[in-house]
Structure formats: structure tokens, C-alpha cells
């Protein structure tokens, strides 16, 4: 971080420091996750009072560029990943397109019986087995989402025994080996709070805001083949969609 504040001389002192730090963040010179020096250290470095530093940091926090963590300090906020609800891409594809390295930790991989509502959505009998795959989804080794997938076992024999689902794209496996290509999906999005278990896995505070996304995915020639429930970190994701006025 450069020590010299290269800003116009007009305006309150705190705005000069605020704008300088904002430029450092948006340019990437201060990377996401970087811990800022203390208010005292910043005051000494830039020659401003601690009150001026505090006000500049408060503005940056309000703008979403900084995150204050009690007992840990102030950090550069992670950039929000804009999730386009009209697009249909796997998590792995999405992360790669953003220049991030996708990863997964398999938490559960077994055969289960579907609940009646899930079976109806997937158009199978409730007594039929399904593959349940629960994974912690990562980007550059940072937890982004907790994902639970249900797939009728009859459509993907042998999938439950695979040992590489922490390293490969599930959609690529389904398309290549089972001829199941995602063509259409319906999603429902709700805001929820993280339970203690989910918070521990996603490395957020209990009660943190999450996006709960439920998706039913269909193949063009088969219909519904996948039901997914995902919990996305609310501080890392925003939703984007395009709308048109009815009748236009």
C-alpha cells in the first residue's frame, strides 16, 4: 500500500484518505481479504488524526469495500460474485469463467430414499433410490456454497461409487457418461440465516445472511433429472436478472 495520498487538496481530510484507499482496493493493490493496519498505524502512516482515519474507514465499510470483524480487525471485502439467475452453468464452469479455481469437499455421498415432494418433482416413485451428494463448494480454496444434490439412481448407475466428485464437474460427468445434459431449470431463491453447523462449514458467523437456492434441472429429452438445494454465502454473492414490462 502506497503511503502517499495522491488526491486533490480540496474537500474534508477524511474524504481524501477514503478515496485513496478506495482506489487502492478497486485497483487490486489492496487485495480482497487483506487485513488493514490499525487505526493508529494508519494515522501515523498518512499523518491524519485517528478520528479522520476512523471516519474514512467507516465510509468504506458502509460502501461495502471493507469488512470489520470483531476481535480480528478490518479487512478488504471479498468482491461479490454476480449470479445470473437466467444462466445455466455448473459451479465449476461459473468459477472458471471468472478466473477462479473451483474445488469441492465431499461431505456426503450415498443412496437415499426421496421425500415425497422431491420424488414428485423428479417424477419418480418415492420408494426408488436416489444418489445424494453433499459438497462444500470452493473458489480458490474459499468456501462459497454448501450444495446438496439429489439424482434418481436409475439414471446414473455407479455414480454413488465414484471417488473423484471432489475434483470433477458433476454436470460434465452426467453429460459425458449418462447422456444427461442440463437444458432448463426452475429456481426458487430465499434469504435465510446460517445455522451453527452451516456457519462452521462456510466459515461465517452463525446467523449470517445466506441465499437458499432450490433448483429443479431438466434435460431436453428426459425431463427433470436433478434437484439441488444450495446455501450461498450472502457476503460473496449477488443475484442478477433481466426483466421486461408485461405486455411489451
From TrEMBL:
Residues 11-79 form the HTH gntR-type domain. CDD domains: WHTH_GntR. It comes from the Bacteria. GO terms for biological process: negative regulation of DNA-templated transcription. InterPro entries: Bact_HTH_transcr_reg, Chorismate_lyase_/UTRA_dom_sf, Tscrpt_reg_HTH_GntR, UTRA, WH-like_DNA-bd_sf, WH_DNA-bd_sf. The gene is yvoA. One of its GO terms (molecular function) is DNA binding. The keyword Transcription regulation applies. This is HTH-type transcriptional repressor YvoA. It comes from Thermosporothrix sp. COM3. Keywords: DNA-binding, Transcription, Transcription regulation.
Amino acid at each position: 500500500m502506497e503511503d502517499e495520498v495522491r488526491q486533490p487538496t480540496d474537500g474534508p481530510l477524511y474524504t481524501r484518505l477514503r478515496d485513496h484507499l478506495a482506489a487502492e482496493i478497486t485497483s487490486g493493490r489492496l487485495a480482497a481479504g487483506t487485513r488493514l493496519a490499525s487505526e493508529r498505524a494508519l494515522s501515523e502512516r498518512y499523518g491524519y488524526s485517528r478520528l479522520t482515519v476512523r471516519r474514512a474507514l467507516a465510509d468504506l465499510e458502509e460502501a461495502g469495500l471493507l469488512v470489520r470483524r470483531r476481535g480480528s480487525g478490518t479487512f478488504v471485502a471479498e468482491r461479490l460474485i454476480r449470479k445470473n439467475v437466467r444462466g445455466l452453468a455448473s459451479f465449476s464452469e461459473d468459477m472458471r469463467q471468472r478466473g477462479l479455481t473451483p474445488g469441492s469437499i465431499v461431505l456426503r455421498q450415498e443412496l437415499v430414499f426421496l421425500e415425497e415432494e422431491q420424488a414428485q418433482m423428479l417424477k419418480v416413485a418415492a420408494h426408488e433410490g436416489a444418489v445424494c451428494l453433499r459438497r462444500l463448494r470452493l473458489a480458490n480454496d474459499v468456501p462459497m456454497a454448501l450444495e446438496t444434490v439429489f439424482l434418481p439412481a436409475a439414471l446414473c448407475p455407479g455414480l454413488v461409487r465414484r471417488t473423484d466428485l471432489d475434483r470433477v464437474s458433476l454436470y460434465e460427468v452426467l453429460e459425458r457418461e449418462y447422456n444427461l445434459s442440463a437444458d432448463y431449470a426452475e429456481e426458487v431463491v430465499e434469504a435465510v440465516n446460517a445455522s451453527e453447523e452451516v456457519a462452521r462449514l462456510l466459515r461465517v458467523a452463525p446467523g449470517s445472511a445466506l441465499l437458499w437456492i432450490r433448483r429443479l434441472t431438466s434435460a431436453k429429452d428426459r425431463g427433470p433429472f436433478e434437484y439441488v438445494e444450495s446455501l450461498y454465502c450472502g457476503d460473496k454473492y449477488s443475484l442478477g436478472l433481466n426483466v421486461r414490462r408485461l405486455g411489451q
